[in-house]
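Let's study my pick:
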Amino acid sequence: MNDSTPTRILLADDHALVRRGVRLILDAESDLTVVAEADDGAEAVAQARAHRPDLAVLDIAMPRLTGLQAARELSRTCPQTRILVLTMYDNEQFFFEALGAGASGYVLKSVADRDLVEACRATMRGEPFLYPGAVNALVRDFLDRAREGRALPSRAITDREEEILKLVAEGHTSQQIADLLVISPKTVERHRANLLQKLGLKDRLELTRYAIRVGLIEA
């Protein structure tokens, strides 16, 4: 996306007052603009298909379809739309379900005025956005998996792929990685696609989780 083009956002929440407040926060930023609203999950899916937003901000507890159900449907039918969950629930189960449904971030409504704008920007950069409690839950999940011996093969990837995986997980862009390794951004993208395919992962967040599990970066 061109830097001068604002991120186009779909906002879905069944409380009109919440939507109004969140919209004020987002529309106050020059790089963010709300282009559609929905008051339930089914309407969110319909609006996403109609408007093709860059980002969908979804509440979890909505009529007809929940935000998690809507996220799963959007991941399948509108893969170009990134997803951010905005919720009142500080709940590990919902957090993991949100990640599983395709969300790139999880923001609590209680701190939306502090975190939401940065969460939107991080999501559009292809980076995960997790509130502190979610990070703790993620680390506990890794530790549980390690104790249960559910590790992936240690040499599933080449040395160059491992280099790129580490840099991706540390938050570097394709251009920054290309500059560091003196290769083209297109080559970086090809290696990244190969990594996702080889490891059976779907996005940067899952690559980061894998990198932590195999010790390439610290949690």
Summary: Strands lie at 7-12, 32-38, 55-58, 82-87, 105-108, 129-130.
